Amino acid sequence: MPGARGGLRCPVRADGPAARWGWCLRSRRLALEKLISDAPASRPRSLLGLCPPLLLLPFPGACWCRSPVPTGSAPASVQNLHLCEGYAGPDGRYHPGFYCPRLTDPAAHRYCCRPGPHALKSCCSQGAMEALTGVNLSSLPVPGLLRNPLALPFVGLYGLLVLVLMALDLVHFYRTKRCSLGRLLPCGRCPPRGSPALGGLPCFPALLSVGGAAGGVNAACTGGVPGASSPALSLQEDYAKAEADASKAIEADGRDMKALFRRSQALQKLGRLDQAISDLQRCVSLEPKNKAFQEALRALGSSMHEKMKTMSCTDSKVEQMFQILLDPEEKDADKKQKAAQNLIVLAREEAGAEKIFQSDGVRLLTRLLDTAKADLMLAALRTLVGLCSGHRSRTMAILAELGAPRLSAVLGVEHEQVSLAACNLLHVMFDSLKEGLQKDFRGKEDAVDLKLLIKDLLELLPLEGASAHGRDNALNLLIKVVPRKSPKETNNSMSLWVIDQGLKKILEVGSTVCGAPGSLPVTENTRMSASVLLSKLYEDLKCDAERENFHHLCEDYVRSWFEGRELAGKLRAIQTVSCLLQGPSDAGNRVLELEGIMDSVLSLCASVCEAHQLVAVEALIHAADKAKRASFITANGVSLLKEIYKHSERDSIRIRALVGLCKLGSAGGTDFSMKQFAEGSTMKLAKQCRKWLCNEAIDAGTRRWAVEGLAYLTFDADVKEEFVEDKAAMQAMFQLSEDRSVLYAVASTLVNCTNSYDHEEPDPQMLELAKYAKQHIPEQHPKDKPDFVKRRVRKLLTAGVVSALACMVKSENPALTNSCRELISRVFLALVAEAEDRGGVVAQGGGKALIPLSLEGTEVGQTKAAQALAKITITSNPEMAFPGERIYEVVRPLVSLLHLQRTGLENFEGLMALTNLAGISERLRQKILKEKAVPMIEGYMFEEHELIRLAATECMCNMAMSKEVQELFLAEGSDRLKLMVLYSGEEDEKLRRAASGTLAMLTVLHPPICKRIPQVVSAQGGGSPASRAPVSASRPVLRAAAHKYCATINSRVLVLDY
Fold first, then answer.
1. By C-alpha distance, which of 323, 197, 337, 328 is closest to 265?
2. Please, are residues 358 and 319 in contact by the beta-carbon 8 Å criterion?
3. What are the phi and psi torsion angles at 656 (to 5°)?
4. Residue 540 CA to chain centroid, in angstroms?
5. Can you tell me the distance from the alpha carbon of 250 to that of 667, in angstroms, rounded to the nearest whole number?
6. Cα–chain-centroid distance for residue 1025?
7. Which range among 99-113, 142-156, 499-513, 1017-1031 shows the weakest confidence by mean pLDDT?
8. How far is it, in rounded angstroms, from Cα 150 to Cα 208?
9. Is 442 exposed, middle or buried (0-12, 13-18, 19+ CB in 10 A)?
10. Quick check: 879 and 921 in contact, CB under 8 A?
11. What are the TM regions of this chain, as residue ranges (predicted)?
12. What pLDDT, on the 0 to 100 scale, is given for residue 906?
């Protein structure tokens, strides 16, 4: 054995049989002790300078040399005593090394030990090692403790990171190799890679589209097997476009296999399987060895076979359902009901509707209509609705088969549900034919069909055999389909044709006197529906000549019943006047001025016949609209109405007389100085109206007249105060608002209670002139001051007025005219006047109801509703007030407030509301851009009014986050950037901060603007130092200062105190 510094190779010649295990038998305890004693204190050596690390044997003085230690090398440090190097076990398997102690070992086991050749290395204590080696280790320093459990969490995080990366890699692999994976599945989506049909292009879920004449592919493949659907081809229009593009490419090159293959896919999605097979067969003929084409053709043939099988099965089912319904011997009602329901459900799908139509279904459905059984007629009508929905050609064929007279006859049956179903069918037919008329598909033929349907509806109106419900449905249908939907439409020929052909028929319905011999059967809503239709037709006229023709027709009809007729004819004439006064009031006033009409009304009010009194009193009430006529009636008919009210035994007549008195008593309007009746009389009339209104034992028609009375009496502020205190009366009125004929009266009452009608403050100088000229000066009631109005609004909100108004707007009611919409919009604007009330209005559905009001109706009504929306948007979180897609519907009404014809307050509120919306999302900013609001916002940045100019600048600050707006500031010849720089030096701190915020937003989001700002400042030349201050500062300072302001604008809700 060499000296202490030497090494020892194992085995040596003196070693015994155990030397084959690499065990050194010549090292002895003395050598170890000498090695320890020779080691310097400053640099302790290993126990074995021969072969570190030391491994103990069961007999003393043996060591295992893993590798020789070269002579001259420094002996290993004592710290290696705790290192167990990797080694090969007895079974030949390699074991990795480790440090002692391990996490599973006690802290004192800091030495690496191996008891024998057949044992594994392990950690042991100092005592155990001394016992095995017989060497005292106390003179050596104890090895350090290297384990640290704190590393485990970091190891776990590292492992989690590895798992996340593996998952992302798997997702990426799936997305890029989905076509390859799809081919391994039974229904693969893509043909083999490198197929000539696809040109070896990678597969992406893009729209099938082929380029122009060159036939180049504009999108990657979306699947080669028929039946596979692409996410981008989710709409029918996309498939049609893909088919059209492919056809253009094929026209340029008939051998373009890519275009043929893609067109076959598009045709398959469009349901034209025969054409799709033709294209695939052409592909196979051009390239017979292409397996992708062969597999696609085989799959498409199989799909077509299955469809034919299904269709044949459907044919049998359709025939079976018709057999069950038409079999007179079938007594099972449940079976018939199930067959009818299945037929209706099948007709709602395009394929099922087409199958019924091709299976001679129209003739069979006609037989069901001819059975005159309500359940079978309902099934036939609802099935026909499915056949006609959105399909013009089928609608024309069905109309030709059934005939318009038959449909009109079904509409006039006594059964209410059957009549309503026929009305729905006719409405669907009108929509389908009008769609073809708008698209100019056989426009003349469609117009003729429409006129035939309308002519039969007009013929139904005066028909004595028609039911009351059928007559109402016919009127409602004419209201929906005849007038123009919007004044922007220039063609009102349909309304003119209806006036020429059917105005007298409509007036005949409106002039019907209930209970008179030979009168038409009508409901309580029939005359109101006729009035609404007349009003719609009159509003659809465009010039004075057309209106004059309308007046002449109405006058001729009234004269035909009034002149030379007996009492029954005069009653019809007076009833016609009432109908016109409720509808087109201009025409009614013209007719009322005919000789003898007004005198007949007053004389009939004194009639002993209750029916005559009823007609006359109603006419008198409607005639008292004009102030001059009201004064005439006050002088001649007040005493008569009082007598009727006091002595009549029928409540229906008393309530009408009461409403007449109410109307005459309110002739002075809101003028406190004009009193038609004695002090206290108006309050008595209002009290009686509230009493009748709350009496549920009285029929709804009589209670409706009580609301009419309150609509006039609430001009008096004393009546308003008492009405809002009567919670029972308010709840009764809200419940009664579901009746179509009372909507206008309810809205008028609420307008009066909230003082939301138009009133202008008189000019003080004009007041002085009026006093000097001794002219009458209107006086305001003391209880109409703002404090009283606020209290009344709060009480209405507590009573649930918002919910009632929302229900009135949602109901599809012909009586919800544009004038009625305007009144409701006025009430909503009054309800949101105070910021603290707006949250409650939104919670009860006011925000949702205001959107349709701001898009339909009169211009004044739309403006009032838009202003109410602006107030809500200013002080509420728009995302909560208008959740989901509804928030995007608010943009257009708010932009309408920026038009020049709006008031300054409306402009200001619109700008503030758009500022809040523009700070929410890019999609909302794009919506504002689409509505062309940016030029108007820029225009108001030059406004003289400080608040409007500030609001426009703040709105532009938020709009600057949009890329399109940023580009506007870099446009050649634009002074937008110069204006912002100038505003940054203004004395108004808020304006200065808004402009600085805009500059900061622009410089951060669009760095090229940074280069333009110094140019703008230098171009100003002798500009004031204040105007150059924002840009003379360093760019980071400018951003930091201005961003603080921008963050304030975007994070808070702008609260306006005005």
1. 197
2. no
3. -70, -40
4. 31
5. 78
6. 50
7. 1017-1031
8. 57
9. middle
10. no
11. 150-174
12. 92
pLDDT in tens, 946-968: 999 999 999 999 998 988 888 88
Determine the average pLDDT of the residues in 905-932: 92
Across the range 751-758, mean pLDDT stands at 86
User: Which of 693, 800, 691 lies closest to 739, judged by CA?
Assistant: 693
Beta bridge partners of 110: none
pLDDT over 50 at 460, yes or no? yes
- Which token pair is 958? 């938020």
Distance CA 181, CA 1015 (A): 59
pLDDT at 910 over 90: yes
63-64/87-88 β-pairing: unpaired
Give the per-residue pLDDT at 667. 56
- Residue 203 φ then ψ, to 5°: -95, 130
- Residue of 626, 534, 519, 625 lying closest to 572 (CA atoms): 519
The Cβ of residue 974 has, within 10 Å, a number of other Cβ atoms equal to 14
Say how many C-beta atoms besides its own lie within 10 A of residue 876's C-beta.
20
pLDDT band per the 50, 70, 90 thresholds, residue 214: very low
Measured distance CA(501)–CA(19) in Å, rounded: 127
- Burial (CB count within 10 angstroms: exposed 0-12, middle 13-18, buried 19+), residue 243: buried
Cβ contact 305:281 at 8 Å: no
Q: What predicted TM-score, i.e. pTM, was given to this entire model?
A: 0.57
What would the DSSP string read from start to end of 312-347? Answer: HHHHHHHHHHHHHHH-TT---HHHHHHHHHHHHHHH
* Sign of the CA dihedral running 546, 548, 551, 552: negative
Tell whether the model's pLDDT for residue 486 goes beyond 80. Answer: no
The model's pLDDT over 914-925, given as tens digits with 9 standing for 90+, comes to: 999 999 999 999
Classify strands 94-95 and 87-88 as parallel, antiparallel or unpaired. Answer: antiparallel
Peptide bond into 1007 cis (omega under 30): no
